[in-house]
Amino acid sequence: MPILAFFVTHYVLSIFSQTFFLHRYSAHRMFRMSVGWERFFHLLTWLSQGSSYLQPRAYAILHRMHHAYSDTPKDPHSPRFFGTAFGMMWHTKDVYLDVLGRKVEPEARFEGGYPHWALLDETLNNMYVAVAFGTAYVLFYMHYATSPWQYLLLPVHFLMGPMHGAIVNWGGHKYGYRNFWNKDDSRNTLPFDIVTWGELFQNNHHTFGMAPNFAVRSFEVDPTYQVMKALQAFGIIDMRGAQVMRWRPEDRLAPAASPLALHEANPADAVAAE
Ligand SMILES: [Zn+2]
Ligand SMILES: [Zn+2]
User: Fold this and answer.
1) Most exposed among 49, 58, 202, 253, judged by the fewest C-beta atoms under 10 Å?
2) How far, in Å, is the centroid of ligand 1 from the Cα of 199?
3) CA of 249 to the centre of ligand 1 (A)
């Protein structure tokens, strides 16, 4: 039972941190929060992603590249150019490490606006800390595992962040339905996205890149947005003035048939750094 609780807690906190803090806050700045709460969620992201922590700067730059160049050769992770999700994520890792290590100079428009905490993002963001987190997972399993097969879950803990990335970036641009005509391959994979907490509404999100609610149809549920509504009610985040997604059946058609095609001013295509 402790193993199941640990696995579910690690999985949920890790994907929540990715979609809420790294994606919607760091990369897109869809909402505001105080410096204190920003530090709280930054720490939560570092703790929950643990051995596969993604630095907000490198995440934001890669993600802004993904929106600007979605499913073109400059996209850091498009399934269009790879035979397997593993191959795609291996390439993503190379781009990520180049940005993280400042071996490449990103386009100026992709820089800025993301949180920075030198202690977590530089000092404690290295291989030794990753191994320490991994060792802690192994020790927990050695103490609480009740059957040998449970150790098969350990690689998921080690690679939680990249695993979620692979599901979203591969599945979300390959499998599912489209609500909106747009220029990339993005799909909505699950109407109730409990697997990645809303990230699999890629087609909705690529069309309305600054809308905090990734769901738009009556049958779609974005779990993270439900949490964000509660955080807003408690005054922890401020989503006032954020973009609101709209949908009509004709939005599935190409612009010639849909004069109001919603590709007009997609703010995510030109992310303005604050
Ligand atoms: Zn995408
Ligand atoms: Zn995005």
Assistant:
1) 253
2) 9
3) 22
Measure the CA–CA gap between 27 and 156, rounded to whole angstroms: 25
Q: Residue with structure tokens 């100026």? A: 108
How much distance in Å is there from the Cα of 60 to the middle of ligand 1? 13
Q: Write out the DSSP string of 33-69.
A: --HHHHHHHHHHHHHHHGGG---HHHHHHHHHHHHHT
Q: Rounded to an integer, what distance in angstroms lies between the CA atom of residue 237 and that of residue 32?
A: 6
Q: Which tokens hold the place of 73?
A: 């050769």
Domain of residue 24, residue span: 2-273
Question: pLDDT for 217-272, tens place per residue?
Answer: 999 999 999 999 999 999 999 999 999 999 988 888 876 655 444 444 444 444 43
User: Which residues fall within 8 angstroms of residue 247, CB to CB, at 6 or more apart?
Assistant: 179, 180, 216, 217
- CA-nearest of 77, 76, 63 to 109 is 63
Instruction: State both tokens at 54.
Output: 């993604």
> Each residue's pLDDT tens digit in the chain (274 positions)?
899 999 999 999 999 999 999 999 999 999 999 999 999 999 999 999 999 999 999 999 999 999 999 999 999 999 999 999 999 999 999 999 999 999 999 999 999 999 999 999 999 999 999 999 999 999 999 999 999 999 999 999 999 999 999 999 999 999 999 999 988 999 999 999 889 999 999 999 999 999 999 999 999 999 999 999 999 999 999 999 999 999 988 888 876 655 444 444 444 444 433 3
Cα-Cα-Cα-Cα torsion 61, 201, 155, 9, nearest 10 degrees, comes to 100
For tokens 């999985």, the residue is 11
Q: Quote the ligand 1 centre to 169 CA distance (angstroms).
A: 6
Ligand 1 center–CA 70 separation, angstroms: 7
